Amino acid sequence: MKVRNQDRERPAGHAQIGRRRGRSFNSFLAGAVTVLLLLAGAGGYLLYRAIEAGDVKNTFNFNQTDTGNTASVEPPNSAPATPAPASIAPGQFVEQSLGNKAQVELLSVQRIAQNSEEVKVQMRIDVLDDMDGGEMLDVSQTGARNPVTDDIYPPAEPETRSSGLISLMNMSKGQSVDASVVLKVPLEVSNIDISVHETSTFRNVPVALAESGSKAFLLNRHRRASGFPQGRRQERQGREGE
After folding, report:
1. What are phi and psi of 13, to 5 degrees?
2. If we measure between CA atoms, which residue out of 111, 91, 196, 210 comes closest to residue 145?
3. Rounded distance between C-alpha atoms, residue 107 and residue 140, angstroms
4. Exposure winner among 71, 106, 176, 197, fewest CB in 10 A?
5. Cα separation of 39 and 115, whole Å?
C-alpha cells in the first residue's frame, strides 16, 4: 500500500516543480523586458540631449543649415559678355543748321554688315523756318573725327554712297527730308564726332554694330587687336590645305 501512495505522490511533485520553473522563467522575461525598456529610454534621452547640444546632427531636420567649415566652390571665370549694339535714342543727337533755319537729327550710326570698317550715318533734316531760296546741305561733305586721337574719317565714295546735295528750296516750316552717308571708320573705334555741312558738330556719337554679321565683326576686331590680320590667316589656311 505504501508503494502505491508513493507512486501517486510523484506526479504531483513533478507538477509543482514545473509550475515553479515556469514562474521563474516568466519573472526572468519580465525583468529582461523591463531592463531593455529602461536602457532604451535612457538611450533616447541621451540622444535627445546630444542633438540639443549639437554633438549629433539631426538628419531629419530639413530646416537645419550646415555651419561646418566646407570648402567654397568658386564658379569658373566666365567669358566677358558680348557688348550690345549701341543705339541712338530719338532726339538724343540734334544740332542746329543753316543759321537756325533747320535742324539735323541723327537717326542711326551703324556699321555695315558687308564691310565692318564702314559706318552708315542716317539723318533727318527738319525745316524750322521758311526758306528764302538757295539753302542747301551737302551731305557728301559729312566727315567724322576720333574724339580721343583727332583722326579724321572721310566719307566712302561720297558721289555714289551719300544723298549728296540736299536742296531745301521751297520747303516750308515743319517739313523734313531724310539723308544718309557712309563713312570709313576703323574697327577699334566705338565713338566718333560727326560733322555735317553747315551744321554744328555732333559730339561722342556711339557707333552701333551691324544688325547681321555682328559675330564676324567681333572676330575681325579681335584679329586686328591681336595683330593677326585676316589676310595672313587666309594665307596660312591655304598653305595647310596644300
Report:
1. -70, -40
2. 196
3. 17
4. 71
5. 87
Q: How far apart are CA 227 and CA 24, in angstroms?
A: 101
Q: Which amino acid is at 168?
A: L
Query: CA separation (Å) from 72 to 31, 63, 69, 75, 99?
Result: 54, 21, 9, 10, 66
184 half-sphere exposure, CB direction, 13 A CA radius: 8
Q: What does each C-alpha distance from 228 to 20, 29, 64, 232, 241 come to in angstroms?
A: 106, 92, 56, 7, 19
* Sign of the torsion formed by the C-alpha atoms of 122, 128, 134 and 135: negative
Over residues 56-84, the pLDDT tens digits come to: 554 444 344 444 444 444 444 444 444 44
Neighbours of 92 (CB within 10 A): 12
What pLDDT is stored for residue 55 in this prediction? 55
Amino acid at 28: F
Check residue 133 and give its pLDDT: 76
- Contacting residues for 156 by C-beta, under 8 A, at least 6 apart: 118, 182, 183, 184
The C-alpha cell at 70 is 566646407
Beta-carbon contacts of 194 under 8 Å, excluding residues fewer than 6 positions away, are: 106, 109, 121, 142, 143, 144, 183, 201, 202, 205
Whether the full predicted model's pTM is greater than 0.70, yes or no, is no
Segment 157-175 mean pLDDT: 93
Please name every residue paired with 122 in a beta bridge, in sequence order, or none if there are none.
Answer: 108, 180
Strand-pairing partners, residue 165, are 138
